[in-house]
Amino acid sequence: MTILLTGTTGLVGARLLPRLVEAGLDCRALVRSGRPAPDGASALEGDLLDPASLVTAVTGVSAIIHLAAVFRSPDADLIWRSNLEGTRNLIAATKAHAPDARFIMASTSNIYDAHSPRPGREDDDADPKQAYPASKLAAENVLRDSGLTWSIQRFGFVYGDQDGHLEALPGHAVSGGMHPAQRMSLVHHRDIAGAMTLAMAGAMDGRIVNIVDDAPTSIFELVALAGGTMASSAEPLTNPWRLHVDGSLARSLGFQPTVRTVHQAVQEDLM
Question: Alpha-carbon distance 242 to 118, whole Å?
């Protein structure tokens, strides 16, 4: 099986690619001109915003794992161009030159309505206003209408493998005015690799699937685990299900997180 990955230098891609290589998969990495190939992968030069450059990258692949995205940027136009137009260009190249390939796209649980009356579920209506989740939802819809064999994975808060993401949470919690009792669904990099392996085997074809661990954890606890502090509060939560995601569909399709909680990650030195 030959796999093309985008976003291999990003938070998820830099940790997923080595696991796929270790599993013996033939991996291609889409890289911009002049960038070196990641260890264990062949480099295919291309840019998601340059459609002609994607032809060679997709030709002959069995699966595409599309991770590339712009997240934290004040440039909303850049977010939309990268996340929507870039995805649209990659889909078009796949349809023209690798129509039988599975197209697996990483997305985000930030799509879900903060005022949901229950944990976010894949069939919920969604209308996010911020550029990042709105652009990802738009890209999801393009993929769903593409005619390709597709699946979409909406990740909870990704952490682990010394990625620094959880360590940045204390600052975001304070600046965002987050309630310490708010619980958030997470997923470890090791389990993203497991979910991707299932998707490449076809278990998630034609589905949007939440990928999260077994135990949403409070912001207060997470900040403490990251070495920070925040003020405690017993005030009621305005939106108790915000950031809490339903992972039952993934379980029904065979996904079982091996890092079931962030506390297990701490105990096993997986942070």
Answer: 8
